[in-house]
Amino acid sequence: SVGKTSFIRYLLESDFPGMHVGPEPTTDRFQAIMYGAAARELPGNALASNPDTPFYELSRCFGNAFLSKFSGCEVPSLFARGCTLIDTPGVLSGRKQTEDRLYSYEDVVRWFAPRADLILLMFDAHKVDISDEFKRVIEVLQGHDDKVRVVMNKADSLSPEELLRVNSALSWSLSRILRSPESRRVYVGSFWERPLRHGNFLNPLFESEAVALLTDLAAVPRNCTVGRINALVARTRRVRVQALLLQHLRAEMPKVGSKDRKQRELIAGIEDVFYAVMKRHNLPAGDFPDVSKFRHTLATSEACRDFAKFKKLDPRSLDALEAILSTDVAQLMERFDAIPGGGLAPAATEASPSPSVHAGGAPVAVPPMDPWAAASPAAAQAKEAAAASTPTPADPWSHPPPGGTDPWSTQSLGAALPESEPNRRGAGGGGGAGSAVLDGLFGVGSAGGAR
């Protein structure tokens, strides 16, 4: 009812298989919308059983209870070439309704969140109250604040006075849940294919908000490589801290005497362990894990039954982690910065009509939503002039250059960092760029929802 599915249709500029739009909450399943040569629907079990898709782990994590409420579809939309969208069910307000679900909504969101490049939280301008389930979903997204975008839909149906009060109430509610002193940016507008309501003097504001949001979405395919490098750095720092913590716990265990008592004392005083490791190795406090979760893992995990049996830390492993942070990542970023911003494959430069925001029937052009759309004539002439004077670097978005590798590919990142964990494939689908825009109520995996 907040307009998630209508927003996806607005982005794709066409209907897609399996969509349901209505005034009441109509989306009752997670649906992955991917690019394909022809429109077709894909059942969830078949989609999750294919190891070549990013959804392969869903079958092992949630089983049939969730897969019966998961499906996919392919659409021949140019927008879908750049990303995979995930349409989500609406959150429920009643406790009995949430208990009737055969899977944990929060756990599914927790699985999608780190694999997504953008998460949209969509609100209906007439119903900005946050239910208990929605609150838990937003709390799950903490730690992914840089991916979250808040969208207030159907704002053109409110008067300016009502819109001011609703926007203030939504910002205040989100600040209490997200526990952030800064006010969250809220995109305000009416995101569907119909024109804005005629006569509202706020229509220029809604149009500019739509342009800002669409521009943000259009940058996702281009920014996904930077996002993967950023995730690699964050994970490397977490691995380093955890290795040092386990090494400290191992060193504190007595050679003789009551090991169980000493282990209980270390778990109870894990804050002192954190402080000692932080001071000894000069590490920032922000790199350390959550204290309560770490304590719970130490107390309940079978792998942590005896701290003395932790594997001794090899100093060469720490040196390798330091090399990743100090040298390898910097080299990757240099290679990334050397890639020309306008290099697109010739076969992918087909011009496509740009989506437009309608105000009282008059279309207002917005930036092209196809990330592979052709550049403007002026930009093309400037590029040709530059190419005439200097050799043009290999196009990273086209086929890999002869005798080399594509620096944008996941394989190249893994090859450049042999010591690191291979980059995870993003939640991108079929023929896309491997990025996922999480939508919907939690915005997970999609950029839209049900109108």
What does this 3D model show about the protein?
- With 451 residues, the protein is of the alpha/beta class.
- The protein has helices at 4-12, 44-48, 58-67, 95-99, 105-112, 132-140, 160-178, 203-218, 220-252, 259-268, 270-281, 291-300, 315-337, 377-389, 410-416; strands spanning 30-35, 40-43, 70-75, 84-87, 118-124, 148-153, 186-188, 356-359, 362-365, 436-438.
- The longest helix is centred in the middle third of the chain and has 33 residues, at 220-252.
- The protein is elongated and about 80 Å long.
Please count the beta strands (DSSP E, at least 2 residues each). 10
**Biggest pleated sheet:** 8 strands, mixed
**Rg to the nearest angstrom?**
24 Å
Query: Strand arrangement, largest sheet?
Result: 2-3-1-4-10-5-6-7
Terminal Cα span: 5 Å
Approximate helicity band: 40-55%
Structural class call reads: alpha/beta
Furnish the topology, listing elements before pairings.
Layout: H1 4-12, E1 30-35, E2 40-43, H2 44-48, H3 58-67, E3 70-75, E4 84-87, H4 95-99, H5 105-112, E5 118-124, H6 132-140, E6 148-153, H7 160-178, E7 186-188, H8 203-218, H9 220-252, H10 259-268, H11 270-281, H12 291-300, H13 315-337, E8 356-359, E9 362-365, H14 377-389, H15 410-416, E10 436-438
Parallel strand pairs: 1-3, 4-10, 5-6, 5-10, 6-7
Antiparallel strand pairs: 1-4, 2-3, 8-9
Helix pairs in contact: 5-6, 9-13, 10-11
